[in-house]
Amino acid sequence: MTELPAHVDIREVAMRDGLQIEAPVPLSAKMKMLEAIVATGVKEVEATAFVSPSKVPALADAAELATELANFDGVEFCALVASPNGAKRAIAAGLHSIEYVVSAAAGHSRANVGRSTAEAVAQIPEITAIAHDSGATVEVIVATAWDCPFDGPTPQHRVLDVVKAACDNDVDRLAIADTIGTTTPRRVSDLVAAVRPLIGDIPLGAHFHNTRGAGLASAYAAVCSGITRLDASVGGLGGCPFAPGASGNIATEDLVYLLRDSGVHVDVDLQAAIEAAKVAQTAVGHGLPSALLRAGDRPSGE
Amino acid sequence: MTELPAHVDIREVAMRDGLQIEAPVPLSAKMKMLEAIVATGVKEVEATAFVSPSKVPALADAAELATELANFDGVEFCALVASPNGAKRAIAAGLHSIEYVVSAAAGHSRANVGRSTAEAVAQIPEITAIAHDSGATVEVIVATAWDCPFDGPTPQHRVLDVVKAACDNDVDRLAIADTIGTTTPRRVSDLVAAVRPLIGDIPLGAHFHNTRGAGLASAYAAVCSGITRLDASVGGLGGCPFAPGASGNIATEDLVYLLRDSGVHVDVDLQAAIEAAKVAQTAVGHGLPSALLRAGDRPSGE
């Protein structure tokens, strides 16, 4: 029997990864979502991204949203950046925790940020300096850690090279991301086993999408491999808006259900996550793929 | 690292568990579905059920459908029954493999077949005799093995009691079924570990629904626990027709994808399963919840 960790930290990513491909949602509706998310008890929230407003119009209000974050106590907010300039903007807006994404796959790196993986890696020192000089922390997220939409399977050495460079440059946290929702449990266990020996005591998180139905299975495999930080999105927000029903991020409430029934403690309340998913659904104006949102908790028989 | 089995047998259940709650599909459309299913390479197909036509009108054509089965070579067909009379009808219709369902939970047993679990268990010897006298095999499926819609969690001893009675009465195969789609990987591992010591070398299968998003994770946990027989349904057919998008059985193609990428061999071809899911979708006239049906295989980069 695999020994499971006693506790898993969930980072709520609906506000960024969930909303980024949606039609822009007014700030007032975003704040309702954020209030519902904070009410779940989650301790870390990815609030927005400081990236090109023309490329990601849904998050063009990043600085404005950031000014609202001081109103929430007891939650760590982070924001995604793709360049030193984005890091500066995030810090200037008051963020204390930034995520820098590096695509391990050449094709996705080029398409996503117009730079090679090596060029993106080369910016880690500058971004780390910008953050650390302000007392902020940096997480490097290795995107396309398993597969690339252009290149197919990502050679493992490309992932490990990014991981090593991040460790060499004093990043505070690492994550491996299944950007296009293709990985499966065995591939998760394999990559975690390869990454772990390289990173010392730097915390390692994982990020999964449910695009091919295996998101929760992959998340459980990650937890069985000792991962105790997982991203998830209320309602499973984050699917392609042009493919109705297509699954996005793994749904927070579905993950909470699975972990609870596995004896793993999380800070997120199941019913509150379902309520937040309903608020997210209203905000974006279409149905979300979460299973618990439809089916609810299992019958208690009481 | 968990040692995975080299091969898993998938039983295709779309024709029975998938169709049983749908509006009746004409026999001609069913035969198109069956042809597409057989074309996947699957070696075992649950073809229909010999139950009350008034309770399950969608399968009222069981005997008529059974006469068509002789046209398919190389596939083992089975049919579900809920009583000795059903077993006699199945055998008379030419089936060589029958499944007898016993609900481990009192509430579901009463609601489903109007008998207590003990009364249903008491029929195992007669059903086994009917089958064996005709050279047919019997599988006992323990329904509501984890949770009951009425009673909540099923006490494990109730499951084990049914398993023991089945073994004592020379059944040929056993399966544990997550009838309402509530179980999760850890609970699967726990129950398999409890059942295994009781059954000697009787093959044990498992049946999962994806109602709460954990179906594939549970299936993978079962495989990690040594289960090498899994039920699945093309398209994930088998959800409630009155809850659009609600997930039914785990989708064959999603399971094949996950197992293939875990290095586990199956007889079912992934693309052929996606094609069969499309045929099933046409037959029932509404969308199905399968992930692969929407997303397709992962990019090969070629």
From TrEMBL, chains A, B:
The UniProt record lists the keyword Metal-binding: yes
GO biological process, one term: L-leucine catabolic process
Keyword Lyase attributed: yes
Alphabetically ordered keywords of this record: Lyase, Metal-binding
InterPro entries: Aldolase_TIM, HMGL, PYR_CT
CDD domains to which the protein is assigned, alphabetical: DRE_TIM_HMGL
GO MF entries: hydroxymethylglutaryl-CoA lyase activity; metal ion binding
Residue stretches making up the Pyruvate carboxyltransferase domain: 8-274
Pfam family, one: HMGL-like
Coiled-coil boundaries: none
Family, per entry: Belongs to the HMG-CoA lyase family.
Name used for this protein in its record: Hydroxymethylglutaryl-CoA lyase
Organism: Mycolicibacterium agri
UniProt lineage: Bacteria, Bacillati, Actinomycetota, Actinomycetes, Mycobacteriales
